[in-house]
Design a protein that fits this description.
Layout (H helix, E strand, L loop, with lengths): L5 E4 L5 E3 L5 H14 L1 H7 L2 H12 L2 H7 L2 H6 L17 H5 L5 H4 L8 E3 L4 E7 L15 H5 L3 H7 L3 E7 L6 E3 L4 E9 L8 H7 L8 E7 L10 E7 L6 E4 L17 E2 L4 E6 L3 E7 L4 E3 L1 H7 L7 H6 L6 E3 L4 E5 L2
Parallel strand pairs: 1-15
Antiparallel strand pairs: 1-2, 3-16, 4-5, 4-15, 5-13, 6-12, 7-8, 7-11, 8-9, 9-13, 10-12, 14-16
Helix pairs in contact: 1-2, 1-10
Length: about 325
């Protein structure tokens, strides 16, 4: 498999090569260690080991000296002008990864009432559960039933529908935002391990996102003031060195955050939760026939001139597009 992993920057259309954090370690862990020492592999991807790695990398004195400085901010591509806090306040790696931004001015949102927006600054691929469709990617990123747990009502609601996978890299802004407006019907946590979101790990392991610990939130958007695209499930997936997912919904900026609970009315594009810290993944599920994805995302995904580890690993063109939080990803159909 090619060691190169490229994606398309949506704003410029440029093909970019990703500098994968800890790539050698991930390739070793998901290659020789997983194959020859499965007990050690399970231990290293467990919650305790993941938390210990996070503590060392993001909270230790060493981590502060190595990562928590202006040079690291610049190398990681952090735009300091977007941040609410001054650069000198971002003096540890954890503070960098948990930074807040002026999203209301630097992440514009479409005004169309039936637009679905990205929940994160992330790299995106889309797919469908419908049989016979060219975007069907059975068993690549997750097992559908396993992803939602034992909630049969939600399995039935989203069967045959569409999905989008958003991969957050460690340098990204790590607040998740609401992709739709509506009312929370359900929210629950499913236990699991902490597999890496590195493309190498995803291809090697197969369906990792439904094996990791995750939080499932189901929105009803067919309510007054809602986006009108049916039920939407948002699954927040922990990964290696993610310590927690903090539910902290705010209607305005980051002010007065409240827990996400059934019955909560949410506006589109508002902060919903925070990953603490590292790489992670969001998955959105849609009911059949309710949305169509943006044409540029579908075009980019099928390109054959971009070297993607997903394309090599899954045997078909599968290229990510880098999208910004609150940017258009889909529109309502009916």
């Amino acid at each position: 498999m090619s060691m190169l992993h490229q994606y398309i920057d949506r704003d410029s259309g440029a093909v970019c090569t990703e500098q994968l954090f800890g790539d050698r370690i991930i390739r070793f862990l998901y290659g020789p260690v997983r194959e020859s020492a499965p007990t050690l592999f399970r231990a290293l991807t467990g919650a305790r080991s993941s938390a210990a790695l996070a503590l060392f990398n993001y909270d230790s004195v060493l981590g502060t000296r190595v990562l928590g400085n202006r040079r690291f901010l610049q190398e990681a591509g952090v735009d300091l002008s977007e941040c609410l806090d001054p650069p000198e306040a971002l003096d540890t790696a954890r503070k960098v990864f948990e930074r807040r931004i002026r999203y209301w001015s630097c992440r514009p949102m479409p005004t169309a009432p039936r637009a679905v927006v990205s929940p994160a600054d992330a790299r995106l691929v889309t797919g469908t559960f419908a049989d016979g469709e060219p975007l069907r990617l059975k068993g690549c990123f997750f097992d559908f039933d396993e992803l939602l747990g034992e909630r049969q009502a939600w399995r039935r609601a989203f069967a045959g529908g569409d999905y989008a996978v958003f991969r957050l890299t460690p340098d990204k802004y790590h607040y998740n935002h609401t992709p739709v407006a509506g009312r929370v019907l359900d929210i629950y946590t499913l236990d699991g391990v902490c597999h890496s979101c590195n493309p190498q790990a995803v291809v090697r392991l197969v369906t990792p996102y439904s094996k990791n610990r995750r939080v499932v939130t189901v929105f009803d958007t067919d309510v007054p003031g809602g986006t009108g695209v049916g039920l939407v499930a948002m699954i927040e997936v922990v990964a290696l060195m993610i310590g927690d997912i903090v539910q902290c919904y705010s209607d305005v900026a980051y002010d007065d955050p409240v827990p996400v609970v059934p019955g909560l009315a949410v506006a589109r594009g508002c902060p919903k939760s925070l990953y603490r810290p590292g790489s992670s993944t969001d998955v959105l599920l849609f009911q059949p026939g309710r949305v169509c994805f943006a044409a540029d995302l579908l075009h980019n995904q099928r390109r054959r001139d971009v070297q993607s580890r997903f394309s090599h690993g899954f045997g078909r063109p599968l290229v990510e597009t880098e999208v910004r939080v609150r940017s258009l990803i889909a529109r309502g159909l009916v």
